[in-house]
Amino acid sequence: MGTVQGHCDPAFAGVREVFERNFAEGRELGAAVAVYAGDRKVVDLWGGVADRRTGREWLPGTPCFGFSCTKAVTAAAALLLAERGAYDVDGPVTAWWPEFGAAGKDGATAAHLLSHQVGLPAFASPVSAEEAADAPALAARLAAQTPEWTPGEAHGYHALTYGWLAGEIVRRHSGRTVGAFVKDEFTRDLDMWIGSPDDVIERAARLSAGRRGAAGTPRAAGHDLLTRLAAAYVDPDSAMNRSLNNPHPGKGGFNNPVVLRAGWPSAGMLATAPAFAAFYRDLVAGRILRPDTLREAMRPRVSGPDRTLLVDSSFGLGFMRPAQTYFVPKAGRASAFGHTGAGGSIGLGDPDAGLALAYLPNLMGDQASGDLRAYRLTEAAYASLS
User: Which residues contact 308 (CB under 8 A, 6 or more apart)?
Assistant: First the structure.
């Protein structure tokens, strides 16, 4: 395993200390973390092994899979189109997607799609990785499907379906895939892709399963809840299992080039940590969305028990807000937003603190959301600001 390399402003030495400790404690295989304070890149660190099979070293330009961190990027694309007047966030989905009104969904709004309230947390039938590359077909499946609750009456994490629901906003109003729209509009100069070319896939970090509990997770839950979560995760009939595991990524899991090329808009991003942090830097600075648009998107639309994840979650319009599913230090709980990813990754922005952070590891934790590695780094970043 290589040593930690890169740049760290002396004021943010605490972030480097945490990053190095994660490696020393065996919590990492390879990883990268980047932090911006305003427009100044104060942390750009990487280390370890990008591919356990070959021993390939993690380099400054190594992209890594971000799992559900992708959702925040998809949300930004949808919100940019709303800002331009393409559709009304609080208006009916049927105004621009008539077929979506089937099976009792005629009251659904775009805000319901963006805040996990529409009642379609999982596909009703199996979807292969190859089928998942056809965004119009998957959107049509969801349009015809009966919701598991009346849209707007509850919320539950739409782990994978979210991408083809929010993504349909982008596709119908721009004529482009989410990946193409994002690259054209606000990530042209960033090493970030939703739908990656083969040369990017070849140099990307390869995900590896960790020892159970190796990554750690911040927990305030009691033993009974942890038992329920573990049971739900393996129960094929639970909302959690159905939401997280369909479509199935196929051979190689999320290393599968079929998935990486397709760019699932819920969990399909490859990015370097500095590029992903720069995305949040630009969001916070008002260069992607107007500040009033971002503030309205950050406003919690739902908070409390999540029907899919069985713990408390909080969502604005596509962005997670601090909760059991998005664990941030006290200093960021009023103004932090972003999204976690299943393997332990996180993207975070904070307009009040002027902070942007991204952390991307390839040694996967065993929790659906939230990770002690990411929390420690985030905590150190906030502490460094003061």
Answer: 116, 121, 156, 157, 158, 159, 239, 240, 243
